[in-house]
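Working notes for the structural subgroup meeting. M.R. asked for a predicted model of this chain before we commit to crystallization trials. I am recording the input and output together here so anyone reviewing the notebook later can reproduce the run.

Input as submitted:
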Amino acid sequence: MMASQSAVHASPQALSRLFVPPTPDEIQDVRDDWASRSIDIDGFQLEATGLGPSNAEVHIISHLSEGERHYAAVRFPQDYQPGQPHAALILCHGGLVGVSVEEASNLLSTFPGQCVDDDYFILMPSFRGEILASSFAGTFISGGQPSYADRDVDDVRSMLSTLLVEYPDIDDARVAAWGISRGAATAMLLKVRDPRIRRVVNMFGFTDLSLPSVQTEAANIVNNGAPPEGIGRVIYETAIEPWLNGTLTLEEARLSWLRRSPAWFPDGLGPIQVHHGLQDLSVEPAHSVLLLDRLSALGLPAGEVEAYLYPNGSHGLNSLVGQGPRVEGFLCDLQLGPSGYCGPMTSSVAGSIASADYRGSASMTQNNLSFVVNNAPAGSAGMVFLASSSAYFPSGGGFVCVGNGALRVGFGAVDAAGMFELPIDLRPQNPAFASILRPGVSAHLQLVYRDIGNGSGNWNFSNGLVVPLLP
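Returned structure, recorded in C-alpha cell form:
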C-alpha cells in the first residue's frame, strides 16, 4: 500500500479526535481482536539452502499466513548439533521495505560472542508485502498488503509455529525476539501476544502512535503535503488516510493505531531490554520513556526491565555504543531458565516430534509453572513424570529423558491443536517430592503419551524440560 495524498484536509481539532487516549473498552476491543486471530500452520516449503555470512547454513522457507505465501530465513547456529535443542532469536527488521539475510551478520558483528552466534537459531521473517533478499538465492516477496506492526505479528506467529514443527531442534522453551525501529514495535507486540516469547529487545521502537510528535507529523502530512516517511507513513497509511477517505470509521481508525502501540499493553512485555539514543530524530526518545514509565507502574520484579539511554545515540544501531554486549548478555540469560533437553527424539505416528515447553515461571513462591508439550498427537492421552536427574535410553517408540526415581505428577489429554498442558505444584508439601522441589535443584519433566501404531509398544515421549527452581 503506497501513500496517496488525500485532497481532504483535516483541522487540528479533527485530527485530535483520532488521538484521544483510548478507553478501557477500546483496549479490551484490541485484545479481543487479537484473541480471535488464528495461527496458521500450513503450506511449508523449503525454498533454498545456502551459506550466509560467516559460512553459516541458511534456509529460505515459506509458509501460508492468512492464505498468502510468507517468506523467512532460518540461520543455523555455528555449533549446531542435530538432535539437540537450541535457543532461537526472532530478528524483526526495521524500515518499511524488507529484510536481507545479511542483517543477521550485521547484528552479530556487534555482539562479543557469548552465545548467540554459536548456539542460537536466528529466524528472520519478511513482513507481508515486503522482500526477503539473499546473496545465494535471490529475492522473495511475501504476499499481502503491508500492515506495519499489526498483521506483521500474525505472520511471525505463524512462522514460529511452522518452524517449531519443521525444525524440532529449535527449543520451544527458549525463544526471544529482537527488533529495531518498526521491527522493535513488532517484536514488543509479539511478546505481548505470544507467551512463547520469553524476552524481547527493543531497539528504539515506536511505542505509542498518539504521542504529540506523531500527531504533529501527521498534521504536516495531511495539511502541508509533507511526504509520508518513517513513523509518519505508518500512522498515515494505517489510520489517517483510511479514515479521511471513509474506508475506516473514526473508531476503527483509533483501534488501528492502538493495535500498533505497545505502550498501551505493558503487562505482557517483561522481561524486556530497552535501548534508545537521545539524539534520535526518527523515533523520539519519548517513546521509550513513556514505555518505561508504564512498565515501572506495574511494579515488576527486579531484572524484568533493563533500559539504556545513549546521550549521543541517533536512529542507528552503531550509534548506541556498548549496546552489543548488553543485548547479548540479556539474550544469553535464556540459558538460565527452563529449557528443553535430551535427544535425538523420535516422531510420533502422526509424523511430528513432541516438544517440551512451559508457561509461567520457575519460582516456587509464585507457583505458576505449567508444563506444556507441543506437536503431540491430537486426542492422545499423556502422563507427566518428574525427576531430579536426566537420562537417555529407549522405551516404546521413543526415549526416556528423566532419571532414576522419576515420579508421576499428573496426566491429561492432548488437545486438537496437539498441545498438552499440566500445572505443576512446586510447593514441596508431598514428602515424595521434597528432595526434588527446593530452590537450587533442577526439576526434570517429561511427557509419555499414547502413540498407537508405532510398532514399539504404542507409547512415545516428548523431549525433556529442565527447570532450575527459584525461591
